[in-house]
Amino acid sequence: MTLHDRYGLTKIINAAGSFTPVGVSRSTPGVAQTAGEALQDFFVIDELQDVVGQALVRWTGAEAGAVTHCAAAAITMTIAATMTGLRAEAIAALPDTTGMPNRVVLPAGHAVDYGHPIVQDIRLAGAQPVLAGDAASCTVTDIEDAIAHAETACLLLVSSRLTRGKAVDLSAAVAAAHRRGIPAIIDGAAQDMRIPDLLATGADLVLVSAHKYLASPTAGLAIGRRSLVQAVRAQEKGIGRAMKPTKEAICGVLAAIEERERLDLAAWRRKQDDKIAQFVARANALPGVRARAQPDPSGMPFSRAHLHVDSTRARLDAPALFAALKSGTPSIWGMAHGLADAELILELVQLEEHEIDAILARLSALLD
Ligand SMILES: *Cc1c(COP(=O)(O)O)cnc(C)c1O
């Protein structure tokens, strides 16, 4: 009996990507087994952190790494780290930042909402978010002006399809921060396959969700400069108490990293491309639907299916189709961000063939 049957839970086909409201990802049996084993025993947590730190170094080539409860926790703990360093008194005082630099500068278009506003992660550490530029554009000069203030703790950048406005040149922004002696942090939560690119910008820390495409139990990764990673870990004796990684998450991350190191990325990519190409071809046979594959705008190595729904030829328009998919059984979750442009967007990365067949069968039943 599945958990869904036992507890009367809604069965879901998740075509919405690594989406928090539906449980983000599915771990492999190997990762799940490792996490399950960890739950049944004791560990010296500092030792687990050291071991996963070494695994992160081996996998990413960075100087150091640590695990936090999730990426949101990693953002708050990293900002805390840039304000306190390793000073125990300052760590214990947060979120009271008296006597510490506490301005966190971010491009206005990077003030994303990934289920809550990212600026709240900044405020949670006691820091003050300061937006540079405006939603349409933020230049390096805008960033330089904003970080010129003496009380600046760090520059926060976001690498995500959720950012708005003209793309910020991350390397140039990091270099501007470093010219001022200010650390630069990149939130690349859903970009675990781009960690080397993000580190190559020169950022001091790159923050990632391990439960998104790496598909570990819920965990955040802070990867980069050793002194800052140490200061992130030190927050576990401060505000980070509420953001600590669990033993099962750390062990699950270890197993997920080992599986990723064995993954043939080129073959994985081909499989994703084939999956999308076949889906698009079949979706193009539906009445009123014009389907195409669209690469991830933030550079992750896969495409999504964009279904343009012509409501003069289809029985439902895109928003009605989206809602009808969701209210059926199983409940099919698509992505909502293209609906205003009459597009239903589906991410297939995590889906198995029978689930893709089920989506096409439902689309056909709704549209024919
Ligand atoms: C998902 C996401 C987060 C938060 O990640 P969690 O690990 O769920 O806390 C932060 N920033 C961005 C851009 C995200 O997409």
Give your account of this protein's structure.
The chain is α/β, with parallel strands linked by helices and 368 residues long. It contains 14 helices and twelve strands. It has helices spanning 3-7, 29-39, 45-60, 71-84, 88-93, 118-124, 140-147, 170-179, 195-200, 226-234, 247-262, 265-283, 318-327, 353-367; strands spanning 12-14, 64-68, 103-107, 128-132, 152-158, 184-187, 205-209, 220-224, 289-295, 303-309, 331-333, 343-346. Strands 2-8-7-6-5-3-4 form a seven-stranded mixed sheet, with helices on both faces. β9 and β10 (303-309) form a beta hairpin. α2 (29-39) packs antiparallel against α11 (247-262) and α4 packs across α10 (226-234). The radius of gyration is 22 Å and the shape is globular. The two termini are 34 Å apart. Pyridoxal-5'-phosphate binds next to α4. Pyridoxal-5'-phosphate is lined by residues 20, 70-72, 112, 114, 158, 160, 162, 187, 189-190, 209, 220.
